Amino acid sequence: MMNSFPLYKYTKNNYTKNIPGWLYIIAIVVGLLVLTQDARPVQAASPHVDLVTLNSEIDSASLRLLTRAIDSAGHDGAQSLVVEVNSPGGDLDSMYAMVQRELTSNVPIIAYVAPSGGHAASAASFITLAAHVAAMAPTTRIGAASPVDSSGGDIGNTLKSKIENDLVAALTSMQNRYHRNVPLAVKMVTEAKSYDDSAAVQNKIVDLGAPTLSALLQAIDGRTITLNSGRQVTLQTVSVQVQEINATVLDSMYAFLLDPNVVFLLFVVAMLGIYLEISHPGVILPGVVGSISLLLFLFAAGSLAPNWAGLALMVLAFALLVLDVQLPAHGVLTIGGVIALILGALLFFNSGGPYDGPKINPIVVYSAAGIVGLIGFTLVTFLLRAQHRRAATGAEGMIGAKVIALTPLVPEGRVGYYGEDWAAVLDAPTTSVDAGSALIITGVNGLRLHVRPVRTQLMTDTHPPSSLKEG
Questions:
Q1: Which letter does DSSP use for residue 433 in this model?
Q2: Labelling 387: which of 47, 89, 193, 402 has CA 20 to 30 A away?
Q3: Helices in 191-307 by DSSP H: which ranges?
Q4: Which domains occur in the chain, in start order?
Q5: Are strands 194-196 and 141-143 parallel, antiparallel or unpaired?
Q6: How far apart are CA 271 and CA 253, in angstroms?
Q7: Distance (Å, rounded) from C-alpha 2 to C-alpha 20?
Q8: What pLDDT sits at residue 178?
Q9: 465 CB contacts (<8 Å, ≥6 apart)?
C-alpha cells in the first residue's frame, strides 16, 4: 500500500518538497558543528610563532583556549607560543590546570603582560609566571594574588592558610625553576602585593620588559629554554611570522554558557518546556526545547563548581510543579516549587569556595521564579475550571439543559431540544405537565430524556388552596 505522506515527492522541479522539517534542522546542526570544529593544525612552511590572547577571566573557557593553543603550537611547528595576558584573575581549579599545561608543554611558552595599561592579577599572575619566559609591556602590573571568595571578600582563617600555603609552594617552585625572585613573588600571595613592570623587571620577578611584541621576539632570540622533558630548545624568533590562534565559535559559545545566569535560565527553560509537555501532551515543541536546554544545562553545570544540594532543590521544584497539575493541590505545590527553585538556585550557584568565579544575580533568580510561578498558577487555574465546567458535548453535555414540552407529559410525552423532537419522561414525584412547560434534562437513557419541571415554573403554576380562594 502506498504511503499517503511520502518522504520524497518525485516531481521534476520539487522532489524535496515533502522532506520533513527535522531533516533540515539536523543538517543545519551538523553543518554548524563541522564549521565550529577546530581545524587540524598544518605544518607551517616558514618559521613562525603562535600567539593566543587571554583577555578575560581565568575559567574553564580560558583553560580550553590555552589548551587548544598549546596543542596547536605543538603540531604546527611553531618556534614558541606567545600568551598575551590581560586578565583580572579567576577560579583556582582552572588556574592550576592552566599552570600544569604550561609547565608540561613541549613548546616554549612566552607570557607577555600586554597591552600597556593591562594587568595580570590574581590567578593570571600565576599563568604569567608559569611560562618559560615572563615579560611585561610598559605600565602594566602583576600581582595581588591573595585568595578571596568570588565576591572579593575575605575567607576563613583556616581555609585561607591552607590555600595560601599551597599557592606559595606552587609559586616558589616555579620561580626557582626559572631562576627568578622568590621572596617578592611570594608577597603577591601573602601580602597581596602588586608590582608595575619596572619593579617586576628590576627585581627579577619576571624576566624582561618589552614595549612591543616585535621587541619581545627580538630580545628573546637565541635564548635557551629547558622544557619539562629535559630537552633544551634555542629560540629563533627574529624575522618570523606571528600566527594568531583565535577563539572559535564553539569557544565563544562555551564561554557564554559558563555565565551562571545563562546556566540558570537554561534550567528554567528546560523545566518549563518539559512541564508544559507533561501538562499538555502532544504539543512536542516545548518538550524539544526543554530537552535541548536540559542537555546544555548539564553540559555547562559540569564546568562550574556548584553545590549539588542546590540542584536537588531545583529538581524538587520541577517535581512539585508537575505534581500540582496531577493532584488536587490547588496551587499549594506550585508555591512550594517556587520557593524550592529560589533556594536551590542561590545554593547551587552562590555557595562555592574561593576562586569559584562569578555568581548568579539574585534578581534573575527572583524574576525567573516569578514567571515560573505565574505559569504554574495559570495552568492549575485552567485545569480547575475545566474540571468544574459542565461537559459541552454528548449525553453529559445535555444534562442540565432546558427543554420545552411539545405535548403534555403524563408522565411521558415529547419535548423540543435545540429544534429536535425527543421522547421524554417525567421524574417522580411529578406525574404530569402541560404542553409548553419549561423542563430541565436530568438524564439521558438511549433516545429518551428524563426531565423535571423548572423550579420557578412549578412555583408560579401551583394553584393556591381553595380555602384561600374562598376567603
A1: B
A2: 402
A3: 197-202, 213-220, 249-257, 260-279, 285-301
A4: 1-35 (no CATH), 48-247 (3.90.226.10), 259-388 (no CATH), 394-461 (2.40.50.140)
A5: antiparallel
A6: 22
A7: 18
A8: 94
A9: none
Give bridge partners of residue 209 from the DSSP assignment. Answer: 136
- Measured in whole angstroms, the distance separating CA 20 from the mean position of its chain's CA atoms is 29
Closest residue by Cα to residue 318 from 302, 304, 297, 303: 297
430-434 long-range CB contacts below 8 Å, 24 or more apart? 430/458, 432/408, 433/405, 433/408, 433/409, 434/405, 434/408
| Contacts of residue 129, Cβ cutoff 8 Å, sequence gap at least 6 | 111, 171, 174, 175, 178, 180, 185, 205, 206
**Which triple of cell numbers denotes residue 347?**
545554593
Helix (H, G, I), strand (E, B) or coil at 208: strand
CB burial of 254-274 (b: ≥16 within 10 Å; e: otherwise) equals: bbebbbbbebbbbbbbbbbbb
459 versus 375: the higher-pLDDT residue is 375
Say which residue, 327 or 198, is predicted with more confidence.
Answer: 198
**Alpha carbons 423 and 149: distance in angstroms, whole number:** 82
The residues, any chain, with a CB within 8 Å of residue 161's CB and separated by 6 or more, are none
**Separation in Å, CA 253 to CA 36, 53, 265, 467:** 10, 17, 15, 94
pTM score = 0.63
Decide: 136 and 263 in contact? Cβ < 8 Å. Answer: no
Distances (CA, A) of 204 to 116, 177, 178, 201, 308: 19, 13, 10, 5, 44
83: Cβ contacts below 8 Å, ≥ 6 apart: 52, 53, 54, 66, 69, 102, 109, 110, 111, 112, 127, 131
Q: Count CB neighbours of 172 within 10 A.
A: 15
Crossing angle (nearest 10°) for helices 157-177 and 183-190: 160
Placement of cell 607570557 in the chain: 111
Q: Which tens digits make up the pLDDT trace of 415-451?
A: 998 888 999 999 988 889 999 999 999 999 888 999 9
Joined grid coordinates for residue 204: 627579577
Distance CA 37, CA 251 (A): 10
Strand partners for 426: 451
Residue 152 scores a pLDDT above 70: no
- Distance from the first to the final alpha carbon of the chain: 87
Cβ atoms of residues 109 and 101 within 8 Å = no
